[in-house]
Amino acid sequence: MTLSRRQFLGAVAAGPLVTVLPLVVPKPTDIRIDEVRHRYDDFVYRTPYKFGGRVVDRVTLLNVRCRVTTRLGKSAWGFGSMTMGNMWAFPSKTMSYDTTLDAMKALAERIAALTTECREVGHPLDLNRVLEPEYLKAARDVSAARKLDEPIPTLCTLVVASPFDAAIHDAFGKVHGRNVYATYGPDLLPGDLSAYLGPDFRGDRLDRALRPKAQERIPLFHSVGGLDALEQTDVERPLGDGLPETLADWIPWSGLVRIKIKLSGEDLAWHTTRVLAIDRVATSAQARRGVHDWSYCLDFNERCPNVEYVLECLRQIRAGSPAGFDRILYVEQPTARDLNA
After folding, report:
1. In the chain, fewer beta carbons within 10 Å around the N or the C end?
2. Is the pLDDT of residue 1 over 90?
3. Are 71 and 185 within one domain?
4. Residue 223: strand, helix, or coil
5. Is the dihedral of CA 208, 338, 155, 311 positive or negative?
6. How many domains does the chain have?
7. Whole-prediction pTM value?
8. Cα–Cα distance measured from residue 124 to residue 115, given in angstroms and rounded to the nearest whole number
9. Cα distance between residue 257 and residue 252, in whole Å
10. Judgement on whether residues 184 and 243 belong to the same structural domain of the protein
């Protein structure tokens, strides 16, 4: 059993201890949060982007900088950034884009203040364990104060909090002169994952789930939205800005080998036709490049009504193009996020 300093002092004040409980020895590598700064950057998309049955033409980024200091007095700044994806993190049939975005910004202000006020010292995972319940409470408070039709979802809260968490981890890596993914070993993070995820994870360590060395190159997914032109005949109004305007042109221009196909879960025939058309265009473009290995991800953005819908979609894709079906690496978030197993 591990007690925080507050819990230990509270137990002492309540009466004599029958059993002496072990305390975690503070590590000189632990950090405290000294300063948090954040800002928003707004961008208008080059063309409208359709995903999950919705069309968006802009995005707001939440950028966070955080300064931390170790117990030995060494300091460093870290950076984190995340899109305020209210269209998928806070979907609503009654509230406007601006309403949900403003609610997320209000929550970001609360999270910034809570993070700045945090006086705990430890590894970033320990700091987040302290802060996350406060973030969730802040989301409930913002929802009530703004009288929102629907409360801010937990996923949305985690989206808003993620750049703050990322900035803390980034600063932790920098203050120790390491890649952040090299800060989860026993020298900086003693103990196992049971402290965070429960007894089922006793003996498991986070560093064992990570590559010991970063890959020099990884494939980047190119997202194809529901309105994106696949070939020249699909282009209704050319932009003429010098960049590719079709998937057929993007593939050689960027050297694409990973394609994310955005689907909406509302029209099975359209889904099948769309995936097969993308596979046809990609196959032709890759043949001209002499490329034989590329893959797809199907992303439904939680819009499929049930599992059978997903399976039938896959059956039809396989019937239309066995090779295209084999190129599907995985299916991303096909059904609603709140599953009852």
Report:
1. C
2. no
3. yes
4. strand
5. positive
6. 2
7. 0.86
8. 12
9. 10
10. no
